[in-house]
Design brief:
The protein is mainly β. It has a domain of 310 residues: YVTN repeat-like/Quinoprotein amine dehydrogenase (Methylamine Dehydrogenase, Chain H, 7 Propeller), CATH 2.130.10.10. 4% of the residues lie in helices and 32% in strands. A 4-stranded antiparallel β-sheet has the order 1-28-27-26. The protein has a 4-stranded antiparallel β-sheet with strand order 2-3-4-5, with no helix packed on it. The longest helix has 9 residues. The N and C termini lie far apart (61 Å). One of its GO terms (biological process) is mRNA 3'-end processing.
């Protein structure tokens, strides 16, 4: 058998940090069904947590939160998302990591992270539950959960139970091992669009396309109150994180606030001009974010019962929205065109964008409990994972989608460091891309700020005609550096 021809990769640039290996040709005579190894990306947050633990003693005395360095070496000092409390821009998850699809492809309607974030659970149009690994994103298991399409998934706040709603109006209880514990087949007359638990987990609310919201006793599985008042399909429901207050959004362009104990409507929030597709409470309990078919997002402050801000930037209907678990003023939205946009509450324009993140509507979004990964699902039959850009990543590296490898990625010089001693106010890791320099900044001639000579082989074109430096033993004795130290200049 002939030996295979292999393309060897040569490092033409000594400062090349990342490069794509050439494809290895299969030797003649081997079966064509053999496939090469897949370089699977892994997002392990353990290193960042250990780094935080090692620096805890020093960081607890610092008044300001740590900042990301906008250079590749800054990845060595990367901390968990919760550590950047005053810089939420450090957690714009715009970098594509992995796409996961079932063997039998079907639209994915809902997703939720398991307790601890070790796995991601998705619910499909075929009624199947699929578990994906939360670190390397590979397939783990699949079960036929129900006969109808899964429309929503939600864990209890104590993370001991899982509740799902289907397309036929049924509600199911599941254990953490995905064993069905209870089923309410006729919970609603139409599809269940949302489920949300009370702070104590004793009650939960469900919304449906039958224009009603129902408050349930979780242990008994019985309805306590039926909240009627919407003039159309109820698209979402959310229970306040600390109080007895339920919010719901509907096709009638209104958000209603309900008293779940009395079963009465307390207030109406107006602002949208079309169907409101989604809403979610902020973890501080003061803000509600909503998005609809009018292509705008709105944040309402329930303390003043007024609209706080309006956000425009989506080109199509807004189908999903999600707050960051550790940054109270950061949220992300998904559109009908597959775009994913990141927002900060004080700013009306999107702060980061992933256009065409999916081929069709983004139906569900969920942050990892650590906040370093965002998972999205869509009707394009895929589940995608998005991570934080590495410090110093170029724009092309951040927004590429299905490419497993990238042709010859080089170091990008941050714009803030391109001038000597100048630093501009740029978001760490999100600056524009620049071509790879022929030599690193500051090494074209004498190193700035030091007394050391330039290193051999790193001279720029203007330095090639300079007189070569004398060797130590060829110097005059008076010019030699003193023993036990270095002189400020050797030539």
């Amino acid at each position: 058998m002939e030996s295979g021809n292999f393309n060897t990769y040569r490092h033409n640039n000594p400062y090349q940090m990342v490069a794509r290996p050439h494809v290895i040709r299969q030797p003649k005579g081997l079966d064509d069904t053999l496939h090469g190894a897949v370089n699977r990306r892994i997002l392990d947050y353990t290193g960042t947590v250990i780094k935080q633990m090692l620096e805890y003693e020093r960081c607890q005395f610092e008044e300001e939160s740590p900042l990301l360095k906008a250079v590749p070496v800054g990845a060595l000092d990367l901390l968990p998302a919760m550590s950047y409390g005053e810089t939420p821009a450090s957690n714009f998850n715009t970098k594509f990591v992995h796409v996961s699809t079932n063997k039998i492809k079907c639209p994915v309607n809902a997703l939720v992270w398991t307790p601890g974030g070790r796995r991601l659970l998705t619910g499909c149009q075929s009624g199947e539950f699929t578990l994906w690994n939360g670190m390397c994103f590979n397939f783990e298991t699949i079960i036929q959960a129900q006969q109808r399409a899964v429309r929503c998934l939600r864990y209890t706040r104590n993370e001991n139970w899982l509740v799902s709603g289907d397309d036929g109006g049924g509600i199911q209880y599941w254990t953490t091992t995905l064993n069905k514990a209870k089923q309410i087949p006729d919970a609603h007359r139409e599809a269940v669009t949302g489920v949300s638990f009370s702070p104590s987990d004793f009650k939960f609310a469900s919304s449906s396309d039958d224009t009603t919201v129902k408050v349930w006793d979780f242990a008994a599985g019985k309805v306590e109150h039926q909240l009627s008042g919407h003039g159309g399909d109820v698209k979402g429901v959310g229970w306040h994180p600390t109080k007895a207050l339920v919010a719901s959004c509907s096709k009638d362009s209104m958000i209603k606030l309900w008293d779940p104990k009395a079963g009465k409507c307390l207030a109406n929030l107006h602002g949208h001009k079309s169907t409101i597709m989604c809403l979610e409470w902020n973890k501080n309990g003061n803000w509600i974010v909503s998005g609809g078919r009018d292509q705008v997002l709105k944040v309402f402050d329930i303390r003043t019962m007024k609209q706080l801000q309006t956000y425009k930037g989506q080109n199509r209907d807004i189908t999903s929205v999600c707050w960051h678990p550790h940054h109270a003023d950061l949220f992300v939205s998904g559109g009908y065109d597959g775009s994913i946009l990141y927002w900060l509450v004080p700013n009306a324009s999107p702060q980061a964008e992933v256009r065409n993140g999916h081929e069709t509507a983004v139906r569900g979004m969920a942050w990892h409990p650590m906040g370093h990964v965002l998972a999205t699902c869509s009707h394009d039959n895929s589940t995608k994972f998005w991570g934080r850009p590495r410090p110093g990543d170029t724009h092309r590296e951040r927004v590429r989608l299905e490419e497993t490898y990238m042709p010859t990625v080089g170091l990008s010089v941050p714009q803030s460091l391109s001038h000597s001693g100048a630093r501009s106010s740029v978001i760490p890791g999100l600056e524009g891309s620049r071509p790879l320099p022929s030599t690193p900044p500051g090494l074209g001639g004498q190193m700035r700020g030091t007394g050391y000579p330039q290193q051999p082989g790193l001279q720029g074109p203007a330095d090639q005609n300079k007189r070569p430096r004398e060797r130590f033993f060829d110097m005059d004795r008076s010019k030699r550096p003193r023993q036990g130290g270095r002189s400020s200049r050797w030539d």
